[in-house]
Design a protein that fits this description.
aa-tRNA-synth_II/BPL/LPL; alpha/beta; EC 2.3.1.181; 3 helices; 227 residues; disordered N terminus
Length: 227
């Protein structure tokens, strides 16, 4: 039986794709393919993709180009407009990106609940490293000591999710200076490494996978790494 939100969540299997550095366009294509298959066959397993991107800017479906501080025709890196919600953000190596492809019909048909669960994954990950992750009312994401360390932007179609979250572990934050990140001009962007010097993406990737499994009550099993 598919729970309606009032019943206990069933344990599902979820494929874990442990990826390295993947061009944004390739990862976007994989997401679209995974979502299309699950729209046709809703009982397929969920997928969690964990990866990094080369430097790239992405804008949500309704994002304004006013938050770009450069001429898009002479952009320093690739720029994509995609179907997620939210404004402009920046991805680069040292930032862990998570793309959960999950069918919310097996969890809870509530987008706000899902966003809060993604924030919870980040907050509990930060706690492992002794950091207090915080939410800010009216905004989506996670902050540490006033610095935004995680951004979240999703797309949901027939209750199947795509896009997801990005967590700054030890990236070069310079690329954020060329935009108004997430349309928020008065709050700085930060990274875990500011508070935990020497931390690596591989460390945090393992922690995120474990906590995602607990928060969403799924059994993760690793798929062969894509190349």
């Amino acid at each position: 039986m598919i729970p309606d939100g009032s019943e206990e969540i069933a344990t599902r299997c979820c494929q874990l794709w442990q990826l390295g550095e993947v061009p944004y366009g390739q990862a976007w294509q994989w997401q679209q393919e995974l979502v299309a298959r699950r729209r046709e066959t809703p009982e397929l397993e969920d997928v969690l993709m964990l990866l990094e991107h080369p430097p790239v800017y992405t804008l949500g479906r309704g994002a304004t180009a006013d938050f770009l501080k450069f001429d898009r025709d002479r952009a320093p890196w690739e720029v994509y407009r995609v179907e997620r919600g939210g404004e402009v953000t920046y991805h680069c190596p040292g930032q862990l990106v998570g793309y959960p492809i999950v069918n919310l019909c097996y969890y809870k048909r509530d987008l706000h609940w899902y966003l809060r669960q993604l924030e919870r994954v980040v907050i509990e990950t930060l706690a492992v490293y002794g950091l207090n992750g915080e939410r800010i009312p009216g905004l989506t994401g996670v902050w540490v000591e006033g610095h935004k360390v995680a951004a979240i932007g999703i797309k949901v179609s027939r209750w199947i999710t795509m896009h997801g979250f990005s967590l700054n572990v030890n990236p070069d934050l310079q690329g954020f200076r060329r935009i108004v990140p997430c349309g928020i001009s008065d709050r700085p962007v930060g990274a875990i490494a500011q508070f935990c010097p020497g931390i690596s993406v591989s460390q945090v990737r393992a922690t995120v996978a474990d906590i995602f499994a607990r928060v969403f009550q799924v059994q993760l099993y690793e798929k062969i790494e894509k190349t």
